[in-house]
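Read as chain and fold; for instance:
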Amino acid sequence: MACWFLFSPGWGAELDPLTGWLTGSFSTRQQAESDERFAAVELHSREIWQGEESDRWIYLEQTLQQKAAHPFRQRIFRLRAGSFGEVRMTEYTMPKASDFRGAWRNPALLANLSEAQLSRREGCDIVLRRLPTGDYEGRNRVGECRTDFAGADTLVQYLWVGPLYLRMLDRGYDQDGMLRWGSPGEGYYYQRQ
């Protein structure tokens, strides 16, 4: 009885602003022009699949600006409202991702893709919490998101989301907890285009 309000109708409506802020076209071009440590990266995303009221699905694609036709990351994220105001962002990969290149522009490319075909990246969920400013921030749990990229064993991902920006900071660590690679400074700052 004490928790009935947590599951009342409309509790998933808190995903509306976050979903809107996570979708669109973003670029780190301005950051790259002022700081040579950063590459110019384009990020495009759009909401796909109408799920239950407490879920939102987003397709995301990232490319280097000079290689816009060849994404280096394609993912599908599921946003799910939590019991205490947090939002869980679950990351999925898809089979033969290159078949879906450009789906942010042409969602028909995803017409034959179903949730059952996706592979969840276990341990890589990002839990986002709303800040007093209204923006969101979060990260995945340290030591749980496995990777085998460039000598790292685990990945820690940080994410900040506002109405006009996304900021991402990824760091890869080896078995001894030593940093093997990662975003410079405070991470890549993507401005809405």
User: Anything to note?
Assistant: The helical segments are 15-22, 29-34. Residues 1-11 have pLDDT under 50 and may be disordered. The longest strand covers residues 55-64.
